[in-house]
Amino acid sequence: MAIASDHQTQTVDIPLALDGVQLIGGEWVAARSGQTIDVINPANRELLARIPRSDAEDVELAVRAAEQAFPAWRDLDATSRANLLFRWADLVDQHGSDLDQLERQEVGRPSWGPPRMGSQLRFTAGQADKVQGLSLPTHSPDQLGFTLREPYGVVGAIIPWNAPGPMFVNEVAPAIAAGNCMVIKPAEDAPLTPLALAKLALEAGIPPGVINVVTGYGAEAGSAIPEHPRIRRVGFTGSPATGRLVMEACSRNLTPLHLELGGKSPQVVFPDADLDVAVPAMTAGITLNTGQICAAGSRVVVHRSIHAELVDRLAKQMQQVKVGPWHRDVNMGPLINAKQHERVLGYIELGRDAGAEVVTGGGVPQGADFGNGFFVEPTLFNNVSPDMRIAQEEIFGPVLSIIPVDDEDEAVEVANGTDYGLVASVWTQDLGTAVRMSRRLQAGQVGVNSPLGAGVIGGPFGGYKNSGFGRTMGADSVLDWTQVKTVSMRGATVPPQR
Ligand code: NAD
């Protein structure tokens, strides 16, 4: 692990950052209770802002505001709705650097360059006026049959902290493009980028009440969304444990939902893999955002013939990862909070106790730079057996497990042998292996010689098995926020005899 050199820590004032308020019906308001939650910079625990600590009463107010906004938003022609989203995208691009800094500060990550949220918004806006129904055959020539795609009305979403900006866009944009009005709760650890995005949406001209952002804890404000009987559809991104609670609450109201949950993504490395490409990509795949990415490739399933070489090269590469506070020239920042810090260190202990070998990392980096932050070293475990907890459970930290196998069948069995199925990667130069593995891997996204299944524009994103169901970001994302109505139509007058 490399350590960033200068010693200052820094919290930057960003004009888009809001303090103590949330957005309900176009107004920036406190929680009804008057209580707040501190949002801190995870690199040094400095206070960044306070957010309202809302509960079911605030969610009720947001639902009423959304209900009021809904008829006009639904009836606005689809091209005008699209244009407002395009304008929002322009503002997001204009404020790209501020948004990036805000997200870096609250999540504690180094810069990823200009955010892609503007392009995702444009991709979604382009679908708004392409929501089409079907023309249906009828039993009589005097009758017409067709389907309408209609919005649900007031819909809800709950998002996690690891990429708050993109998560906000992925839920809000398709829902409102379809004509719904949304109540969304960002994560209490990283709500500032979502609030800033909502501010830009208002500035773009998206009417008050179309987007309502209610902040607070999951058990107080979050749970009130799926429990609300007048919220007609829900999108949830987060952990499987919370996803189950959200689904249970939705089931009581018979509310449809999609779930974007966790992963334990395998990276399968064949003997003919180009390790010059694979090793840096796999290292980035587990250290990007400090491993706090649902798609993180956290298991390396490697053919025994190149096992030793791969361990050696991965260890060297992981030791090059520069760790430090977000504002420096580093590759990896801290974990998000104390709970996550304990959890990741706990898994490292579990791995050691189970007999896996720590090749590099395995602890907390030492030095003045790290005193107050939730830092952990990039950690490589060798000789992990597939049934160990570190190979089965999502750690959500920079911890990579290497599992050697003897052939393709065993690789498939190990790769598919968890409850998750979000992303899987294959490293090979053989086309036949690539084709077979693309079919055999149980995952919503498969990347061949590509770490996160990324690099595709408009690829639907979502999970198999316990990684969830439903897809975001694809060409159907707006349709998914609509319901289908079949219309059969006959004129009121009796048809003449033919
Ligand atoms: P989390 O489940 O703890 O929290 C997610 C959100 O749910 C937060 O806003 C939280 O406040 C809220 N919440 C908590 N308890 C709730 C309850 N009882 N009712 C309603 N809402 C509640 O997850 P997290 O720790 O914020 O995020 C990490 C998880 O998210 C990981 O499992 C990761 O894999 C997953 N994730 C998945 C994707 C994806 O697209 N599949 C993307 C990002 C993150």
TrEMBL record:
Q: Which UniProt keywords apply?
A: Oxidoreductase
Q: Establish whether keyword Disulfide bond is in the entry.
A: no
| PANTHER family, per the entry | ALDEHYDE DEHYDROGENASE-RELATED
What organism is the protein native to? Georgenia halophila
InterPro entries, sorted: Ald_DH/histidinol_DH, Ald_DH_C, Ald_DH_CS_GLU, Ald_DH_N, Aldehyde_DH_dom
- Catalytic residues? 260
Q: Does the keyword Nucleus apply?
A: no
Q: What is this protein called?
A: Aldehyde dehydrogenase family protein
Origin: domain of life: Bacteria
Q: Which residues form the Aldehyde dehydrogenase domain?
A: 28-487
Coiled-coil residue spans: none
Q: Which Pfam families match?
A: Aldedh (PF00171)
Family membership noted in the UniProt record: Belongs to the aldehyde dehydrogenase family.
